[in-house]
Amino acid sequence: MSTGMKIGAVIITMGNRPDELRALLDSVAKQDGDPVEVVVVGNGSPVPDVPEGVRTIELPENLGIPGGRNVGIEAFGAGGADGYDVDVLLFLDDDGLLARHDTAELCREAFEADPELGIISFRIADPDTGVTQRRHVPRLRASDPLRNSRVTTFLGGANAVRTKVFAEVGGLPDEFFYAHEETDLAWRALDAGWMIDYRSDMVLYHPTTAPSRHAVYHRMVARNRVWLARRNLPTLLVPVYLGVWMLLTLARRPSRPALKAWFGGFKEGWTTACGPRRPMKWRTVWRLTRLGRPPVI
């Protein structure tokens, strides 16, 4: 039963997966309830042919994942009580596919039932095997991907965000370009009193991949991890958080080139501007700890 909440969707594309994009758009169009308004952002590339009614924006340069998504968010910012035309925005990878027709309705019901709920992280599953990778379950206890829970972060290409969150804490950090931008937004949302849920019944089919397929992965992960800490953590926790992550990285025994790139990114994170610093309150640190992920891990 539709609650009347208006839902939009933001999809960024590099224009190189036209068939997958069309399949995703078809899966969005098949959602139960009121139609989902869609904006497709060509991130430094033309947008392939899309169905009638889908809005498109073509950027002259690649602004990165958070920058591209922020342009999509702004496309919905023409009105409404909180400055947005819709109540909820879906963010979906252009090579993903909504597995069910009731995902939008489940989002409406979840946000309507819980006024404190700000973000929902969907479950990502391989379309052929149904397997959900551990890294796609946004909590430390990730062995059971079918268990719903409160979490402290979310998956960037498979989620729903209440637009009131953006109105209150701002969008994704443009300067991150790729990696950890979701956690930056999640920490700011949690600090403002919002909650985040992981929902296993809201499924995005997505081919199994390794994040390290991106050439810039190791440098970006390290640089943005430092930026994340510098922007959001109380001063006392910054060295603890980054020290733990350095030990974890070394324990994973990356290749020599990967380790070199990681340390280069780590240095870059300290020597370059990271954007505004707004350290979270200590009660938010305790809240993260009670949710099972203190901000030192």
UniProtKB/TrEMBL annotation:
UniProt keyword list: Glycosyltransferase, Transferase
InterPro entries per UniProt: Glyco_trans_2-like (IPR001173), Nucleotide-diphossugar_trans (IPR029044)
Annotated signal sequence range: none
GO molecular function: glycosyltransferase activity
Start and end residues of each Glycosyltransferase 2-like domain: 10-167
Pathway stated in the Swiss-Prot or TrEMBL entry: Cell wall biogenesis; cell wall polysaccharide biosynthesis
Chain segments annotated as coiled-coil in the UniProt record: none
Family recorded in the similarity comment: Belongs to the glycosyltransferase 2 family.
Descriptive protein name: Glycosyltransferase family 2 protein
